[in-house]
Specification:
Number of strands: 2
Number of helices: 9
Strand content: 5-15%
Shape: globular
Largest sheet: 2 strands, antiparallel
Distance between the termini: 47 Å
Order of helices and strands: HHHHHHEHEHH
Strand order of the largest sheet: 1-2
Structural class: mainly alpha
Length: 198
């Protein structure tokens, strides 16, 4: 599926306020250069994917692109995608070189996927719900109400910006990750592998 045809399908799905800033117009110009077909293939046709319909896939990818726009526009805020958007994000990330290239082209930096939000205690769950509510508010402010779907639930991830590509200089992410409460020593895993060797 060519991006141009895919973008035409998205055209009716990305409805935005008439007061959108020029930054959104610039974002759309860059987004038109993306090849979204590998993501769509994974979502619609891959035997490991969810096998969504074309309509659901187009809407979900449109929401994902809108979320990326918000994550870039509101870098100082903690935002949380819906589970649906997060699933699209996962399929984009799986093609690591494409994801890095797309981030570089769209933003000039990497948007990392931090998958532990809401899992580090009660305060973290509170922050997750608060951030998801804020994200929904921003969707309502910038896009049609179609993008705000109360039936969608928050994911357990958040975007984290990194100026350095592709992954160097991410010690702040390691610190966040270290707050998880399920310690697993690498040596324990390696010992299991060693035991399985002939």
């Amino acid at each position: 599926m060519e991006l141009k045809r895919f973008h035409l399908a998205l055209k009716g799905d990305i409805m935005f306020s008439s007061q959108q800033p020029d930054t959104f117009t610039l974002f759309l110009q860059k987004a038109r250069q993306l090849d979204l077909s590998p993501i769509a293939y994974q979502l619609m046709q891959s035997h490991t994917g969810p096998r969504w319909s074309r309509e659901k896939t187009v809407k979900a990818i449109a929401r994902y692109l809108a979320f990326l726009y918000l994550a870039d526009s509101y870098r100082h805020l903690q935002l949380v995608p819906s589970q649906e958007i997060d699933q699209v994000w996962h399929y984009h990330i799986l093609d690591t070189s494409k994801y890095v290239e797309d981030c570089q082209m769209l933003f000039g930096y990497m948007i990392h996927h931090f998958p532990y939000l809401g899992l580090r205690g009660e305060q973290d769950r509170y922050d997750q719900n608060k951030a998801y509510s804020l994200t929904q508010t921003l969707f309502s402010k910038h896009f049609s109400c179609y993008f705000v779907d109360q039936a969608l639930h928050p994911s357990d991830c958040e975007p984290i910006r990194s100026e350095i590509l592709p992954t160097a200089g991410c010690s702040h992410i390691s610190k966040l990750r270290s707050r998880l409460h399920t310690p697993l020593a690498t040596e324990e895993v390696l010992a299991k592998i060693a035991l399985s060797l002939n």
